[in-house]
Amino acid sequence: MTPLLAVNHLTKTYGGRIGCADVSFKLYPGEVLGIVGESGSGKSTLLNCMAGHLAPDSGEVIFDTRVEGPKDTLAMSEAERRMLSRTDWAFVHQNPRDGLRMRVSAGGNVGERLMAVGARHYGTIRDQAVDWLERVEISDDRIDDRPAAFSGGMQQRLQIARNLVTGPRLVFMDEPTGGLDVSVQARLLDLIRGLVRRMGLSAIVVTHDLAVVRLLADRLMVMKDGHVIETGLTDQVLDDPQAAYTQLLVSSVLQV
Amino acid sequence: MISVENLSKTFTLHNQGGSVISVLDGAAFSVAPGECVALTGESGAGKSTVMRILYGNYLAQGGRVRIGDVTLTEAEPREILALRREMLGYVSQFLRVVPRVPTLEVVAEPLLALGVAEENALARAKDLLTRLRIPETLWSLSPTTFSGGEQQRVNIARGFAHRYPALLLDEPTASLDPTNRETVLSLIEEAKAAGVAIVGIFHDKGARERVADREIDVSSFARRAA
Q1: To pair with A142 at 20 to 30 A between CA atoms, which of A242, B52, B140, B218?
Q2: Are A31 and B112 in contact (CB < 8 Å)?
Q3: What single DSSP character describes residue B141?
Q4: What whole-number distance in Å separates Cα of residue A178 and Cα of residue A155?
């Protein structure tokens, strides 16, 4: 099977400091990969390098495109990469304000992504927006409200709807449940899991929350100081961690 | 169906002075289709460790585990996931679910993950929940708030939803009343009759004697005192 995404020796430094160093892995269709580590471990740098938001110093990010097959996204033209990020890729930011247009209605936020890939019929766009708002449990009488009038949890769900409406194949998520209270978080996790299964999505989820990765991710990558310390099946890494740092991380979780 | 060769397992506790605990050394056994093997040995002998290695949850330091034609100890994560989806079931002692997901979906999930049509998967889930006497009024609720015995039965229903050719059972009859225990034992017997290879831990002696064809004393796998 061709991996959907193959990352080879990806390195990013900030001056003399290491962002992430020599990271390589393969992600297969339908897989969810969790990346965990403490603040400053390089997980967001890695995610942003893969998603094309940051230019890495060296390495390859090879994506299995629909038309041309596996292609290094770092060698693509800007136009090509932008098209990819509107169609096959999606990026869910930790702060929904970074991923939404706060002055445009909820429906408009979802519709904009559709229009970016060529949808022009207002009725169709609105219908799809209503359908997606329903899937993320936002009632349709809120479609004309601006996200600024939404709660944090609703904004996050709207951001997910906006990202998934074009049927992406790969979703990057940066702390998707960060800053949400636990009941909203549970609801969001349930939602993401259902969408991943029904749409056959692959996802890369960056988080510092081990409970989140246990529920969402099939595989886990542990990072520290820009390096990958340990990888494996999520439950294996959490239940039988091999590296000293992972053992420390797992044993530091507070029990409820 | 399940074969274990020369398996060894140590735990290295890096944050506690790097002490190394050896649990298994040279463990070897195999389980044929339709056979049920009970792991015995006192608490701490390594019964659950063996189960977890068989499920790919713990990493073995040496040796080989084969489930069907997959060598678990050398498999890639995605191969292990596929194995767990199709071939290998595990009923643990604890139910771990996403909050808010209804019981019926929790039980049907292994079937849905295999691509079974939703109505068939739900029908099978309903059938199992009925057999295990989970009242219908609870089906639409999340099992997180259920009693211990109810959670245990939901877990069993989930483990038996798909007929895995290999099944691992960790104390399936613990915390069950006699009627439910009987149901679980007959589920195990049906699985055996259908050719499922089972490895189980049963503290309940009656249950063990009834379903197990053989017993393996895990303490015999421990490192001999040098």
Answers
A1: B140
A2: no
A3: S
A4: 13
Query: What are the chain B neighbours of A236 within 8 Å (beta carbons)?
Result: 56-59
Gap from A198 CA to chain B (nearest CA, Å): 9
Q: Which residue from A minimizes the CA distance to B55?
A: A236
Q: Name the β-bridge partners of A205.
A: A34, A173
Give this complex's ipTM: 0.86
Instruction: Say how far apart CA A37 and CA A224 lie, in whole Å.
Output: 6
Query: Cβ of A209 under 8 Å from any chain B Cβ?
Result: no
Gap from B106 CA to chain A (nearest CA, Å): 12
Q: What is the pLDDT of residue B225?
A: 44
Chain A interface disruption, residue of B9, B10, B14, B101, most A CBs within 10 A: B14
Helices B118-131 and B103-113 meet at what angle, rounded to 10? 130
Place of tokens 């740092």: A245
φ, ψ (nearest 5 deg) of residue A92: -100, 115
List the structure tokens of B135.
């009242």
CB-based contact A59:A7 (threshold 8 Å): yes
Q: Which long-range contacts (CB under 8 A, 24 or more apart) does A250-253 make?
A: A250/A210, A251/B15, A253/A210, A253/A211
Q: Looking at residue A72, what is its pLDDT? A: 93
Look up residue B218 and give its DSSP letter: G
Does the CB of B112 have a partner CB in chain A at under 8 Å?
yes
Which backbone phi and psi does B157 adopt, to 5 degrees?
Answer: -60, -45
Angle between the N-to-C axes of helices B148-161 and B118-131, in degrees from 0 to 180, rounded to the nearest 10: 140
What averages of pLDDT result for each successive group of 10 residues across chain B (226 residues)?
92 88 90 94 89 94 92 91 93 82 92 91 96 94 90 94 95 90 94 95 91 92 62
Amino acid of residue A114: L
What's the token pair of residue B25? Answer: 């050394």
Give chain A's residues under pLDDT 50: none
* A217 phi and psi angles, rounded to 5 deg: -95, 140
Instruction: Please give, rounded to a whole number of angstroms, the shortest distance from the CA of A186 to a CA of chain B.
Output: 6
